[in-house]
Amino acid sequence: MCNNISFLGPKGTFTHEAAHMVGENLVSYCNIPAVMESVSNGSCQFGVVPIENSIEGPVGITLDSLAHKFDLKIFSEIIIPINQNLIVNPGTSMGDISDVYSHSQAIAQCQGFISDNEIQPHYAISTASAAKSILGDKTKAAIGNSKAAEIYNLDILKYNIQDVDNNETRFVVLSNNDHEPTNNDKTSIIFSIYEDKPGMLYKILGVFEKAHVNLTKIESRPSKKGLGKYLFFVDFYGHRKDKIVQNILNELDNLTYFLKVLGSYPEF
Amino acid sequence: MCNNISFLGPKGTFTHEAAHMVGENLVSYCNIPAVMESVSNGSCQFGVVPIENSIEGPVGITLDSLAHKFDLKIFSEIIIPINQNLIVNPGTSMGDISDVYSHSQAIAQCQGFISDNEIQPHYAISTASAAKSILGDKTKAAIGNSKAAEIYNLDILKYNIQDVDNNETRFVVLSNNDHEPTNNDKTSIIFSIYEDKPGMLYKILGVFEKAHVNLTKIESRPSKKGLGKYLFFVDFYGHRKDKIVQNILNELDNLTYFLKVLGSYPEF
Fold it and tell me: Domain of B140: which CATH number?
């Protein structure tokens, strides 16, 4: 078993920062399904991908891939604060800049700054590739983390240009197995409900209520089967090996149309 | 009171198609908040924007703007099937194409087709601007609706290249007032719950359950206040002037931290 860790690259992204907290043998992949595939086929032991941001919400491709394409487990979670910076070529001042490049989520997080400064936003595949793309042109700036600036020898002209505080991203470390119980665990599940039976979501939440188990997250995603039909992504306290959680999962099995346990892992 | 109808432009988009179903005096705006502003300040009577797609999910900027920035009401809803086509310059064959341009949602909807054909995807601000950008270059294709091809005298090389069927988008027609009761109505609300009181979502769904009122949608969005803190967008049957709905809204007022009624309107 190799101990490589795959992550959503390129180097210099926030995911790279999160992957550094897992280990040293890091391998960059260019999209989220490729990271998952590398774990699924055994070429990497762990894979690190973003799953949700407190401002922009869920990372759709991560949730959809976990629901529909891969049978991976969540081994751990990592939460890091997202501070966006205006990255420029050395010697650039604000008045020089006409265009700014970054990942669509970073652009969205800095909309106030961009419109206040009347800069034209452009989407790049990642914050790091945005930094690379501005090299040598003072009319262009990038938005990204300090690592991106460091890698390409660029300067940071303004720090923390995101619209709001409380901006943090949650990453999951995926593996083929989840984590052993630690007494401070969370469990993640995905389920869909019978569309022809109204009130099922209420009944399902009632199972948690009766067991006095608190949810830490409930997120809906379109099931891709039509408007108003959803998959629900729910996180709650407890390990799937706990008796109380086992009872909940058994009850949910009867109430849901589809149920998938993404695993149990220590709370960050 | 003018009878202009603003819509998320440019011409040739699916929103343009939806706006045509509302009336004739159409005015194109380049982003969703600008459409809302045009209604809010009275320069347009109605504004048409997308609110959710059955595959890609909610249109975040529409939900966020309705929640936080504008006090607009939903006057009606329009649902149209989304068929994506491969748009090319006349005389182009599949082998000529190396790059494809479209809005990020359209690219996401056609990921299977794009990777099967090994074409490089690029994001454009809209499906219509993508069509315009390929004019005269046979190595470039666009993805969009048939109207976009028509406007720019382009050909459709492949029809219905989206990954899945059941692809439809729901648009809302916004105004300063909602619709009078028609006996076949829906009501849309936004609420947030007290974070320190577990089980509140269960209690809130219980209010609908007790009243035998069915939800047609429940969607979570990050409240931008931190991970695990959500706004919920809920649609249900009934008009806010119905006695039964008034009772529900009164009960919800006590159970929620924040409650906003987006209005009542006939079901499409």
Answer: 3.40.190.10
